[in-house]
Amino acid sequence: xxxxxxxxxxxxxxxxxxxxxxxxxxxxxxxxxxxxxxxxxxxxxxxxxxxxxxxxxxxxxxxxxxxxxxxxxxxxxxxxxxxxxxxxxxxxxxxxxxxxxxxxxxxxxxxxxxxxxxxxxxxxxxxxxxxxxxxxxxxxxxxxxxxxxxxxxxxxxxxxxxxxxxxxxxxxxxxxxxxxxxxxxxxxxxxxxxxxxxxxxxxxxxxxxxxxxxxxxxxxxxxxxxxxxxxxxxxxxxxxxxxxxxxxxxxxxxxxxxxxxxxxxxxxxxxxxxxxxxxxxxxxxxxxxxxxxxxxxxxxxxxxxxxxxxxxxxxxxxxxxxxxxxxxxxxxxxxxxxxxxxxxxxxxxxxxxxxxxxxxxxxxxxxxxxxxxxxxxxxxxxxxxxxxxxxxxxxxxxxxxxxxxxxxxxxxxxxxxxxxxxxxxxxxxxxxxxxxxxxxxxxxxxxxxxxxxxxxxxxxxxxxxxxxxxxxxxxxxxxxxxxxxxxxxxxxxxxxxxxxxxxxxxxxxxxxxxxxxxxxxxxxxxxxxxxxxxxxxxxxxxxxxxxxxxxxxxxxxxxxxxxxxxxxxxxxxxxxxxxxxxxxxxxxxxxxxxxxxxxxxxxxxxxxxxxx
Amino acid sequence: xxxxxxxxxxxxxxxxxxxxxxxxxxxxxxxxxxxxxxxxxxxxxxxxxxxxxxxxxxxxxxxxxxxxxxxxxxxxxxxxxxxxxxxxxxxxxxxxxxxxxxxxxxxxxxxxxxxxxxxxxxxxxxxxxxxxxxxxxxxxxxxxxxxxxxxxxxxxxxxxxxxxxxxxxxxxxxxxxxxxxxxxxxxxxxxxxxxxxxxxxxxxxxxxxxxxxxxxxxxxxxxxxxxxxxxxxxxxxxxxxxxxxxxxxxxxxxxxxxxxxxxxxxxxxxxxxxxxxxxxxxxxxxxxxxxxxxxxxxxxxxxxxxxxxxxxxxxxxxxxxxxxxxxxxxxxxxxxxxxxxxxxxxxxxxxxx
Lengths: 612, 353
Ligand SMILES: Cc1ncc(C[n+]2csc(CCOP(=O)(O)OP(=O)(O)O)c2C)c(N)n1
Ligand code: SF4
Fold this sequence. Notes:
The complex is a heterodimer.
Chain A: E1 5-9, E2 11-19, H1 24-37, E3 41-47, E4 62-70, E5 81-86, H2 89-95, E6 99-108, H3 114-119, H4 127-130, E7 137-141, H5 143-150, H6 158-163, H7 165-176, H8 182-191, H9 196-215, E8 221-225, E9 233-239, H10 240-255, E10 259-263, H11 270-277, E11 285-288, H12 292-304, E12 308-313, H13 315-331, E13 335-341, H14 358-363, E14 372-375, H15 381-396, E15 399-405, H16 406-410, E16 412-416, E17 462-464, H17 478-493, E18 504-505, E19 510-517, H18 521-533, E20 538-543, E21 545-547, H19 553-557, E22 560-567, H20 572-580, E23 586-590, H21 599-611
Parallel strand pairs in A: 1-8, 2-5, 5-6, 6-7, 10-11, 10-12, 12-13, 13-15, 14-15, 19-20, 19-22, 22-23
Antiparallel strand pairs in A: 2-4, 3-4, 9-16, 14-21, 18-20
Helix pairs in contact in A: 1-7, 5-9, 7-9, 8-9, 10-11, 10-15, 12-13, 18-21
Chain B: H1 25-37, E1 46-50, E2 65-68, H2 74-84, E3 89-95, H3 96-102, H4 104-113, E4 118-123, E5 126-127, E6 133-134, H5 158-164, E7 169-174, H6 178-190, E8 195-200, H7 212-215, H8 220-223, E9 224-226, E10 234-235, E11 241-246, E12 249-254, H9 276-283, E13 291-298, H10 304-318, H11 324-328, E14 333-336
Parallel strand pairs in B: 1-2, 1-3, 3-4, 4-8, 7-8, 9-13
Antiparallel strand pairs in B: 5-6, 7-13, 10-11, 11-12
The structure holds thiamine diphosphate (TPP) and iron/sulfur cluster.
Thiamine diphosphate binds at residues 52-55, 71, 95-98, 122, 124, 126-130, 135 of chain B.
């Protein structure tokens, strides 16, 4: 071992990249899970094309998976990768801009032939030179042919053989980063339990890759990343969509209600539907509807009938649900609407992340149609915000719209598993006294009406989309409409008593307050920490509660000389803040590339503000 | 439950009914209320869900649980109600515009799923509430405010959509015939699966008399075939005419003429799974045929809400996870036993209020 160059790092980002058929998402996920199991903190970012079968070998068909892990807290998947695993030339082209200067590129040299170079539109036979990657550490590994060689006695056809070349790459990377293979082997055995040949061949190739690394160690740097220091407890790796699904399950159990999900598949929200469909064991009713409208209206029906009702979607699907959200507002029924945002407008960038549905969430309906709007900020806290969304909906008889995004939904991180007993109670406003029940009689404090559903004798009543008076009778009285419009808005505003105060990360006062919301949290906190380490007087105010805003918001804002609102859109939250709190000046940093922020670009924008 | 003694009054709400005087909706509601009163089901177990249209005002006039929703979506809302609580008797009230136009997608999918609920389609072949535009069941060439020169499109025949979507129950009635409507609703209520009842309804304001050719008392016997399961398809003043099968098609024949005997007349089998004859009956129209009424099709098939409940029960018996704690700690987890200062992700710690 004495030849080995061992590089010790606090944190390292690896990007697996290849053709969408190369299995890079699985490779990345397996590596991340194995890494998290070793006690590193991680953050992942799958980045895949929207076409399932974009032409093979082209830049459009490149599928990537980045994971950052470390012995300290990891908040982002990393702006740039230390190590790139490139299964073909297109992967090099697509990822050159995401490489850390001086990083390492491991590539399948077999795939760097004329045909593939052409497909990736390289003009010369020097793809690295063309991408300005000359001074990077490059490790050519004939992955395809080594995989073929390793499997020659298995009697497999060429296609099946090449399908396992990702395992070679995975084995090699595991060696580089000192990850044991047992977790991955276990996974392969379970996944292909019914196909022993597939198990054997994949395990063989995995080990071949690992051994190759070991044997070639004189030329390959090996990295050492020690386990992270994290809070005691039981951990698991979780992505945002699973966390959302599980938060809803937790809310159903806490509230003693059955969970109903009406949904229609759409990227990147579909995984919530899948995850809940898996949970028949917990009694979940999932209804794959004929479209988004049926998704939400079936949920509204289930809510009318007394279930914890949820609908999940992404941007274009939310647009279709608008009319029905209005119905839930008018009927004052509890409903959780999850929108996993993606690039828009229209079908936009289906597999990329964006925060541009905020205005749609707040205002995208006919009439004065207020709903509570929340936004989760990390993959794992999707659990908490989904739970909270359900709690607010059930206790206040109001639709709650939860915003996550593609970055959170697909990204993952280790999560300390809570005990159900640690979670707060949820008390749905189920009507108790038939004698005094009236459909629109309200609680004087929080303005919520009571919930009575079919089957409850003596509570028979009619609701619907038409304006009603207090007894539930249809009313066209102008004053009644004015009054009820105000009440519906006020009811949402009073949810503020369930909203924790806004806290700043950093000092309570200073030169610059960085303001952000939702899924950008990881990048924001990393940025502000780095700036503070540099001695800059900068703090972060990150919002999870958008409507209503935390009640001390203006107070927090007033203590800073400058405010900059950073979001992945053209300034929707900034506009909202200008509307709600016009007394402050808001600078903006906006990005709409379908990509998360990078810490570096965020820092630049703050430097500029500090100089001005 | 059979000792429940309801009368029609028990199903009328205090709300003032606001249909135009003479509107066919009154009679249909009367029949629905009579049916419900006789079902032996406690009143609180009814849920009446409607879309938008004149007919969809219906729930307000019922003293059960009611939900007046949005245009075209009643079928989807009702699906959620029934899935949430399969114990309920769920009724969908909809119009030809509501169910066939904006709600067409939900209508066919409801039927395909075979959710156990009863859908009553008020077919006045016009948009009533929006004041007289043509609807998807209006005849080609019909002149309305939005088709001043006549429409250039063909109508849907609701029953055809029902058969096309693999419907298990389809019946036809007419507003003025409360007794028939009540019988048909009763059949629909007893049917396990989606029951679609098309009721020909007269809109006195915008389409007055649209069904007159069928209802005209002077010709009714010749123009209406009231089907009954197990009975021959006879009609006419003296039951002298019958439907026979000839060269692969239905045909009207006079018993005793051209060698046609009573035995040649088709016997109605609503329970026949093969929909061919049901479809042919649905397609019969004036002037060559009488219009078919009564329960045309009633066959058994798996029911969505029942299957959904059963699947949940089976999975619960075979899977290990019984609660959320077990779920959270299932699969790949690991223990961190040494605490070293860092406490999770600071500032993202979740706080409850
Ligand atoms: C989204 C939407 N589009 C249009 C309308 C207007 N609208 C209300 S009822 C109706 C047609 C109703 O016709 P039908 O279902 O035949 O009911 P009828 O009034 O004849 O009983 C229309 C177009 C609406 N309320 N909502
Ligand atoms: S407009 Fe026609 S359908 Fe509507 S209530 Fe009047 S008569 Fe009935």
